[in-house]
Specification:
Elements: E1 9-12, E2 21-27, E3 32-35, E4 40-45, E5 56-61, E6 64-65, E7 69-73, E8 78-80, E9 82-86, E10 92-96
Antiparallel strand pairs: 1-2, 1-7, 2-3, 3-6, 4-5, 7-8, 9-10
Amino acid sequence: MNKIRKGDNVVVITGKDKGKRGAVLRRVDEAHVVVEGVNRVKKHARPNPMRGVAGGIVEKEMPIDISNLALFNPATQKGDRVGFKLLDDGRKVRVFKSSGEVVDA
C-alpha cells in the first residue's frame, strides 16, 4: 500500500518547486510520481508527420521523487505526513500523522 497515490493532492516540500500544490497524475515507479504543474521542463520535440506531432519546444511535467512531497491536509491547509492504521473491520487505511484523521473515506 502506497502513502501517495494517483489523484492525491500533494505539496512539494523541497526543491525548486517548493510550496507548489498539485494532483498526482500518474505513478512512474515505486519512488517517483508525476504531479500536475510541478517540475515542468522544456523539451525539444522532433516533428513526426506520421503521428501528427508538430516539432518545437514543448513544456511537460517530469517525475519527482515522493520523498520531496507531502500529502495536502485540507483541515490544516498544509502538507502532512501519512501513516497507516488498521480499523476494527480489518481494513488498512491511511491517516494523517498530525491529527490521526483518516485520509481515505
